[in-house]
Amino acid sequence: MKLKKNDVITTEIIDITNLGFGVAKVDGAVIFVSDTVPGDVAKIKIIKLGSSYSVGRLEELITPSDKRVEGRCPNVLCRSCAYKKLPYEHEKALKEESVRQIFKKSGLSEVEIMPLVGSPTECSYRNKAQYPVSRDKNGEYIIGFYAPKSHRVTEAADCPLAPSVFSEIIEALREFFKKHNISVYDEQSGEGLIRHIYLRRGEVSGEVLLTLVVNGSSLPHSDELVTVLTEKFPALVGILLNVNRENTNIILGEKFITLWGRDYIFDTLGGVVLKITAPSFYQVNHGAAELLYARAKELASPTKDDLLLDLYCGAGSIGLSMADEAGEVIGIEIVESAVECATFNAEINHIFNASFYAGDASDTKKILEPAERIRGEKIKPDIVIFDPPRGGTTEELIEHVSSLSPRKIVYISCNPATLARDMVVLKKYGYVGNQVTPFDLFPMTGHVESVVCLTRRLDVDMRR
């Protein structure tokens, strides 16, 4: 049977992708179908034909899968969460297996994938959320998330992954926008004011920081907004504007304006009190991050003789959590405000063996230059921590770090595909890891965090 566009067929869903599309196979042809889960028997309509796969639309659910659940998320139109119609135990099994398959396909079948460590909580775990704002044809404000592969905003202000105070603040903002008919940014024309609502919360402190990303440098009636929000939400410690006039997918611009309060929150992670600004990196799932950091510290096992180099260090949370056992910690981070936070965090925690410097990990020739210039000596780390963005790190950085011959490299990754890719490169430069432990920091979504310790093979000549 050769599929044609607009064909309507009945088939069983046999798998699901990490983007939440059910997978069917008909005469060897792969079909991706939204709103389906493994075990569903469904009537689907072919809406797109491709050379390697087709896309189908669910027309009728004939027999629901025994794995299908309802009620994990009330937002029908939002499809940001891949696994919201599956029970959490099955979701965890899928994630663990996905990591295993990624490493197998990368030629790293000798690497053991350990059991996935689940999140202590399935809902309300996100301490950071960024909501794009739009308006429909009737002028109503839509606040939520982008539909897959589009910039069409779907309503999801009441997201179950975020704390309830986020949705309460959003509704107060919606009323304010309505009252004053505040314009929203239009990507086509480049006009309009409000682009995103960006919220951060300290899990331990309870402090909340609100940032409105705007296509301008001011907000009409901002004094009124400050009064309304601060009276209603005592957890708020700061209200900011972020100026982003660029036609870009990047959410935050470089300039912040404080309308009220302070431009940071405090929280505690890994036994360390942290100052966190709006642009600073900070793990979104506090409870799961505690487990991840504890495992990373166990793998690093620094001693008082060790110099620990923390690359992509953000506000210093990982390095500072290990400083009590290490001889010295040096952190490198490209975001200067995060470096300032990391330095401040060391001071308020009375950690005197940690220092932080601004540096770009993509520029291997200069990444350690600021620190070495101030210290007046070359840095020779015993342990290196990698915690890069989703794109992973570069071969140039791996080669440079390998030339420093650290005893261990502890790699924390939010993308198992780039972790596997980088481990292949690390192996080339003499560093191997035997066990990867996945952690679920993002329940309901398709994302998985992982950590691995790589050690230097003594039989590899690093003089290149």
Descriptive report:
- It is built from nine helices and 24 strands.
- The longest helix has 18 residues, at 88-105.
- By secondary structure, the protein is an alpha/beta fold.
- Strands 7, 17, 18, 19, 20, 21, 22, 23 and 24 form a nine-stranded mixed β-sheet that branches. A seven-stranded mixed β-sheet has the order 10-9-8-11-12-13-14. A six-stranded mixed β-sheet has the order 1-5-6-4-3-2, with no helix packed on it.
- Helices cover 23% and strands 30% of the residues.
Oligomer: single chain
What percentage of amino acids are in beta strands?
Answer: 25-35%
Low-pLDDT parts are: none
Helix content: 10-25%
What is the number of helices?
Answer: 9
Number of strands: 24
Label this structure with key terms.
464 residues, alpha/beta, 9-stranded mixed β-sheet, 7-stranded mixed β-sheet, 9 helices, 23% helix, globular
